[in-house]
Structure formats: structure tokens, C-alpha cells
TrEMBL record:
HAMAP family cross-referenced by the UniProt entry: TatA_E
Keywords from the named record: Cell membrane, Membrane, Protein transport, Translocation, Transmembrane, Transmembrane helix, Transport
Name the record gives this protein: Sec-independent protein translocase protein TatA
Coiled-coil residues: none
GO CC list: TAT protein transport complex
Subunit structure: The Tat system comprises two distinct complexes: a TatABC complex, containing multiple copies of TatA, TatB and TatC subunits, and a separate TatA complex, containing only TatA subunits. Substrates initially bind to the TatABC complex, which probably triggers association of the separate TatA complex to form the active translocon.
Name of the coding gene: tatA
Annotated family: Belongs to the TatA/E family.
Residue segments, region Disordered: 44-114
Pfam families, sorted: TatA_B_E
Naturally occurring in which organism (per UniProt): Streptosporangium becharense
Keyword Protein transport found: yes
Compositionally biased intervals (Low complexity): 54-65, 73-90, 103-114
Record's function text: Part of the twin-arginine translocation (Tat) system that transports large folded proteins containing a characteristic twin-arginine motif in their signal peptide across membranes. TatA could form the protein-conducting channel of the Tat system.
Length: 114
């Protein structure tokens, strides 16, 4: 984009005055300033929400899942060791986390009522 010199800026200003009138230009500038402020505020809110979601996701992933220890039978020398249980799938992990979240919400609700 070519650089605009003072002459070009004066010509653009005169065209704007002719199109909108001298009384309407300050109102238009105020409206433009307000809309830019609103736009900036909304985009910063979106960034804050994205940051909060990524922080929450990181915290949820960092929490270890409580696992109940399974009783293991005593292995004798003649029986082979049992194979390790397969790791839970992502859907199962998500279901467990949702159940934990529901329990925590219920506990928080009960605590507020007391």
C-alpha cells in the first residue's frame, strides 16, 4: 500500500466532510470509537475464556484418577502370572471424570444448603 502524504490526507478529509457534513463527522467518529472499544472488550473476553479453558483442561488432565486396588490371588510357581488389565479408553476416562464432577457438584450443593 503506498504511503499517504499530507496532500492525500487533506483530500480524503475534504471528501468525508462533503459526504457526511461537518455535524455528522464527530458523531460518526464517536460511534466508531465505541464500536472499537466494544470489539476489543469482547475479543479480550474470548481470549480470557480460551485461557481459562486450557488451564482447566490442563488441571483436569494432571489429576490422577483414584483407583481401587483389586485383590490379586496368590500365584504359585506352577501358574503363570495374570496379564495386566488393559488401560481404560478415552471414553471410559471421560465418563469417570464426568461422574467425579457430578459427585463434586452434588457435594458443593449440599455444602451450600447447610
Amino acid at each position: 500500500m503506498p504511503n499517504l502524504g499530507p496532500t492525500e490526507l487533506i483530500i480524503i478529509g475534504l471528501i468525508l466532510v462533503l459526504l457526511f457534513g461537518a455535524k455528522k463527522l464527530p458523531e460518526a467518529a464517536r460511534g466508531l470509537g465505541r464500536s472499537l472499544r466494544i470489539f476489543k472488550a469482547e475479543t479480550s473476553k474470548l481470549r480470557d475464556e480460551d485461557d481459562a479453558e486450557s488451564t482447566t483442561a490442563t488441571v483436569v488432565q494432571a489429576q490422577p484418577q483414584p483407583a481401587a486396588p483389586a485383590p490379586q490371588p496368590l500365584a504359585s510357581a506352577s501358574t503363570p502370572a495374570p496379564a495386566a488389565a488393559p488401560a481404560p479408553s478415552a471414553e471410559e476416562q471421560a465418563r469417570v471424570l464426568e461422574e467425579q464432577a457430578a459427585r463434586l457438584r452434588a457435594q458443593a450443593g449440599a455444602a451450600k444448603q447447610q
